[in-house]
Amino acid sequence: MKNYIYIFLFLFSLSQSQDFSDGPYGTNYLDVAGPFQIEDLGVRQVGDLDGDRTISLKDILLYTSYLDGEINFDENDLLYSDINTDSNIDIIDIILSIDKIFNFTPAIWNFEENWIGGESFILIPSNTLWQQNVKLELLQNSPLNVHYIFLSNLDSNYEDMQNLKDEFDVILNQFPESLQNHWLTHLHYSAKKISEYEGWLSTGLANRSALGINQFQELQEIGSLSNPDGFIGNYLHYLAHEALFYDYQWNALNEDENTYDEVSVFERELYTGGWAATIEKIVEFPALDQLNNYSGMSIELLRGCPDANGNYSDQGCDDYDRKARMFICDEDGSNCHEAARWITPFDRQPHHLTDISPFISMLKPGGNKLIKFQESGWPNSLLTMNFRFYHGEDLLDTPQSFQPMWVGTIPFNPEFDDNTPPMVFEVPENATKVEFVSYITGHGWGSNGTFNCAEFCNSKHMFSVNGGVYEFENDHPEAGALDYCMQPSTISQGVKPNQYGTWGYGRAGWCPGQDVHPVITDITDYIVIGGENVADYDACRVQGNGCVTPPTCQGDGYCPEIAVSSYIIIWY
After folding, report:
1. Under a CB-based contact definition with an 8 Å cutoff, are residues 348 and 511 in contact?
2. Is the full-model pTM beyond 0.90?
């Protein structure tokens, strides 16, 4: 089943392709990757009749069998058998094939010529990686739209690459023919040392164990390839994590520019951070009539990190996972409300696009708003932030107003329910839809009797409307799972992989290096239109199949807490 999913994603990504960029090119992270070419042992040449990427006695025997009338060649076979391109398969082609056996010259694989868009590339110059016996796992975990390019500067490079190709060939023989043929075109083995190539490869790969190129043709840093459960070893198959995240970025960010309007907030602006420090900017948003014609809104955030030279690099990133939030405020800085939330990764640079459509109500009636960004720690970030407003047609209603409900960081202890008393909200007579929208994430763990809450324990959050006319809940069963955040399916949802910390463990409503999506519940059918309504909020710690009182913190460690921002959103 997984292979079929990957095939679908591969075809979808190609449908969203873009042309090869004409630069400007560079060798720093997030620079555009320039053209290059390699002598590739993995490229099929004329004379290679059996498609094994070598010309050998087996191919000569196929020639003779064809000429003797024992076998037939299909159209593809004929293409690779006509070495002198005279449209005839004869003894001359056999002679030329024999010459290729004794005077073999690898074919050229050209990056620009093979760029079809929608594909990513990972260059691997580290022999300590490509000598590992996890090559099957690498292919099994990889999306189909990634190319792996193996290179080396060792004097034994040619022999090493031949052996590496042989190893992959053995693995590919276990695959269905369609997958075999696919990977044969997506695995590349450099016949020459890196230093022997002209262009940027020699400098671009210097002191790097691997280097990525995503579907936007941007150079990508490779993170830690060690197991976050103990930080042991470096694993070749963890490179598949990078390719999965490239796919997430491509599928999330690569939208048709004709379908949305963009409002820029920050463009590679330095945020020095600090506890409670913010970076802010007054931004002019569209007027009310225009906002009412948008079908939705998303927020793009590139949280880059500067190295000593001001270039993007993981080396300039913060060492810890922290809450990052975007607030929409009145122009004078009052009435600030959280509209977006992310959790930062350990020493890596995430890039997300998050649907926050309900919070278009915070921008109305339009005009100037103060946008604030804040991280809860001591980061050093290069921020790029943009709003995207999506074009709609003949919209009957949109989110028009909001009312804050429970907002803040609430200790997760036996008094939690007392600290979240019932809230009253009014719904106007012209309302057509009412939503309850919330961000709820658990943090802290304490050290004495707190059950790893609230970061690593499952907590259930229960809401009721109008005395129980309607009840709904949100829980976090993934909290505490040893490898939830590093599963391929989770990375594909936007977790920045291969971090330099305990990024693999599941958390309560979040993963390090991922955007937090607002939870939206339609409560229209259960509230009084044109009158007062009451909502209540309780929470508990999940124990087995039951629900128990939140723990009591002993005052040590990081006491458990719930970071909540919740709102009633009114549509009309």
Report:
1. no
2. yes
